[in-house]
Amino acid sequence: MLADRIIEILDKGIALSDDVLHYIDSTFFNPSIKELQAILQDDSNCEKDSLIELLFFPDESMQIQLEKVLEEHNFLKKDEEEISNYLCRKPLRVYFHLPGNRGSLHIEISNAYARQLIKRLHISKQLNRQIVAAIDNHARAKLKKQFKVKLRNSRLIPTDNKIAFLSGFFEKFNIESSDVFEHLDFVLSFLEEIKEDTDIFKALMVKKKFYLRHLKRTEKFEDQLQRTNMETLMLQGKQAVFIDKNEARKMMVIIDRISQAVFGKTEYFEPLHGGEEVIELRSDKDIENIIKILS
Question: What is the C-alpha to C-alpha distance for residues 220 and 170, in angstroms, rounded to an integer?
Fold first, then answer.
């Protein structure tokens, strides 16, 4: 059943994304369809495997079409080989359509390619029921599958504190917002980084402080560059410090929004005198201390 569903999707052809096309152009130097097709048909070409690996990397749109089947059946790791064999029981030519009317590639799927595709679909991964329930209870139907695909693709190992945090995110965050997936991507990446017994609120604040510290260092270094040149700074033993300032500010906003939604609070850090010292504002007492410092 799953193999037949995958074949239905492959029969329609796969539309490659702009990101994939950019990677192809960067890796193969803006190749024509004829050049790409030649690579796919040349077993002696060392670039063939990397191109096929790229083409057979399933995107979220394919996974969303399969999520209902995966959720309704408990596929096991051992099922992957059987499903790969089903995919190849008849010759199947797959077409890959490049954006911008640049044409289409085609390749006949082999058992090796099928195994590669199935492996990346994570069919045997069982999503945590508590997190799934939070998604089902609070997300509209159009978004549910995409949320679950994000979870399926993550390397997150669910532990009690992470399960509670993720459930809280889906329950309390405005998951109807246009940038919800940007916030979810951050959450999943962040949870993959931290240890099992980590205090998640404190870890979020440490992450926020990290962005603030590097933002201030970048601003300070840029200010120094306005007054002298790079060579002089290097001779003075000062290292170049650069971070995308807009990205750093955006990440701090994302952390604040997530923390406010899930925990009902956040912490604000204010740099003093343009330096790297950071004062934490958590209470009226902290504000009184800042007044004493400034006076």
Answer: 38
Residue 172 is which amino acid? Answer: K
* pLDDT surpassing 60 at residue 209: yes
Tokens, residue 140 = 């509209």
Cα dihedral sign for 206, 212, 213, 215? positive
- Would you state the structure tokens that stand for residue 185, as one six-digit string? 């991507």
Residues sharing a CB contact under 8 Å with residue 226, sequence separation 6 or more, in sequence order: none
What is the predicted pLDDT for the residue at 153?
Answer: 97
Q: What is the spatial distance between Cα 67 and Cα 21, in angstroms, rounded to a whole number?
A: 26
Report the mean per-residue pLDDT for the chain.
88
Q: Report pLDDT for 73.
A: 93
pTM of the model: 0.83
User: What secondary structure, in 3-state letters, does the chain show?
Assistant: CHHHHHHHHHHCCEECCHHHHHHHHHHHCCCCHHHHHHHHCCCCCCCHHHHHHHHCCCCHHHHHHHHHHHHHCCCCCCHHHHHHHHHCCCCCEEEEECCCCCCEEEEECCHHHHHHHHHHHCCCCCCCHHHHHHHHHHCCHHHHHHHHHHHHHCCCCCCHHHHHHHHHHHHHCCCCCCCHHHHHHHHHHHHHHCCCCCCHHHHHHHHHHHHHHHHHHHHHHHHHHHHCCHHHHHHCCCCCCCCCHHHHHHHHHHHHHHHHHHHCCCCEEEECCCCCCEEEECCHHHHHHHHHHHC
**Least confident span in 100-109, 221-230, 259-268:** 221-230
